[in-house]
From TrEMBL:
Gene3D superfamilies: DD-peptidase/beta-lactamase superfamily. The lineage of its organism: Bacteria, Bacillati, Actinomycetota, Actinomycetes, Micrococcales. Signal peptide: none annotated. Residues 12-331 form the Beta-lactamase-related domain. This is Beta-lactamase. SUPFAM superfamilies: beta-lactamase/transpeptidase-like. Residues 362-444 form the DUF7586 domain. It comes from the Bacteria. It comes from Knoellia subterranea KCTC 19937. Pfam families: Beta-lactamase, DUF7586.
Length: 463
């Protein structure tokens, strides 16, 4: 799709204003809708100097911790191939260290209690050693595994090593061969290659710059070393939005973006959580996933709407996403610019509305309508392929997916009834008698005595 000229001009202006306001040497960004990059822009020079080379959508920046999402997807591919389980202890596959009892799932979701950083010099600014050296340094845990969320770069070094041991080759080769090349992400590399921005620190009180060092982080590289471009990371945003291109099942992607552990900040309401490799946000009722990134000289952000809801903001399309890079060490820009760009897309370019068509089947009518759980009243309706009981998101309202080809077996998709079975029980003549939902009986009339209500119905009935 193409955006209107007025929308394009507005987005360009937001990016240019942000670059100036936040004193960014350069900034590059893109917006994704329908799996395609629908806008990209870049402002500033790659060295931060007047007359320098202009940044563009093909300029490489360090993505920092967005690297972790690639490692996580590669690990989940191992799970889907049956080569491991996320409940496995790390030491089952990579024995001999202090992280042996932490599970793979806990490492993915930063819930293993693993220390945040290394025990040696600031790893982001110095050359890194190998895995054996990292283990020998005494990397361990700060909390009981599973107790709480504790972001850990060293935990992702461990996951990178897990990839190497199970696949028997370097972690980046696994990511490159299994993810980058199939997605056409040819400009995503382990070290800068071709047109790349210089990492810079901007002095907080003067308009002067300091170049930041860049090294191979060794065993710590899976925590944040990859370089990429707007064009390339937009493809990864499309992947997160559902364009998995056969590289991961939709079910596994959905599992990865479930909130596994909230990010608990004292004095603040919970708005963020961590899934399996992905950050998850609740922004005024809208669910988004992605990841932020920072390395000396660079900041990055990727955010994608998981559904069409805008919460308290403008609605759009599921998969609407933003990617943004800048070559500065510290700036509040990432708290404002990505969200402003994405919100502007959804405000000025409403997603196309698909017209309603009658595509249902009359055989569901025997289940549709009013049902009673004891004396409470609920409604069953059919929306697309789903049976909807009540209002999802309210009370115990839930959607149910059909199991098999018939109408008699369903499984819950939302809230309290997620994963729970709903069965349709019939009389001898084939007519529907009641619904059994995780042992709860739903009958057409309150406490129908003919519907085998557990505990029976008083013989005097309603009086």
């Amino acid at each position: 799709m193409s955006l209107s000229s007025s929308t394009l001009a507005r987005l360009d202006h937001i990016l240019a204003s942000g670059q100036r306001e936040h004193r960014l040497p350069s900034v590059a960004a893109g917006l994704v809708r329908g799996g395609e990059l629908v806008w990209s822009g870049a402002v500033g020079t790659v060295d931060g100097r007047e007359g320098g080379r202009q940044a563009d959508a093909d300029t490489q920046y360090r993505m920092g911790s967005i690297t972790k999402t690639f490692v996580a997807v590669a690990v989940m591919r191992l799970r889907d191939e049956g080569l491991l389980e996320v409940t496995d202890r790390f030491g089952t596959h990579v024995p001999g260290g202090t992280l042996d009892d932490v599970t793979i799932e806990q490492l993915l979701s930063h819930a293993g209690g693993v220390q945040a950083e290394t025990n040696s010099d600031w790893w982001e600014r110095t050359p890194g050693g190998d895995w054996d050296a990292l283990v020998a340094s005494g990397v361990g845990t700060r909390f009981r595994s599973g107790r709480r969320f504790h972001y850990s770069n060293t935990g992702y070094a461990a996951l990178g090593r897990l990839l190497e041991v199970v696949r028997d080759r370097p972690w980046f080769e696994v990511v490159r061969d299994e993810l980058l090349e199939p997605l056409g992400m040819t400009r995503t590399t382990l070290r800068p290659n071709g047109s790349a921005a210089q990492g810079l620190a901007v002095h907080p009180f003067a308009d002067v710059l300091l170049p930041e060092p860049e090294h191979d982080a060794g065993a710590m590289a899976p925590a944040g070393q990859l370089w990429t471009t707007v064009d390339d990371l937009a493809r990864w945003a499309a992947f997160l939005g559902g364009r998995v291109e056969g590289l991961l099942s939709a079910e596994t992607l959905a599992e990865m973006v479930e909130p596994h552990h909230v990010v608990d900040e004292p004095g603040q309401a919970w708005t963020g959580a961590h899934g399996l490799g992905w950050q998850v946000w609740n922004v005024a009722g809208a669910r988004l996933a992605g990841h932020g990134g920072s390395m000396p000289g660079f900041l990055a952000m990727q955010r994608v709407h998981l559904d069409a809801s805008g919460g308290d903001g403008p609605a759009g399309a599921a998969g609407d996403g933003v990617v943004l890079f800048t070559n500065t060490t510290a700036s509040p820009a990432l708290k404002h610019l990505p969200g402003t760009l994405l919100r502007t897309l959804r405000e000025l370019e409403p997603a196309p509305v698909q017209p309603w068509v009658a595509a249902g089947s009359s055989d569901v009518l025997e289940l549709a309508g009013t049902w009673h759980w004891g004396a409470a009243t609920e409604t069953v309706r059919f929306v697309g392929e789903h049976l909807v009981l009540g209002t999802p998101g309210t009370g115990r309202g839930s959607r149910f997916a059909r199991v098999g080809d018939g109408l008699d077996e369903w499984v819950g998709l939302d809230g309290y009834y997620t994963g729970e079975p709903l069965r349709v029980l019939r009389r001898a003549d084939g007519s529907v008698s009641y619904l059994d939902l995780a042992t709860f009986r739903f009958t057409r009339t309150p406490y129908d005595s003919d519907a085998d209500v557990p505990g029976g119905v008083d013989e005097h009935g309603w009086v």
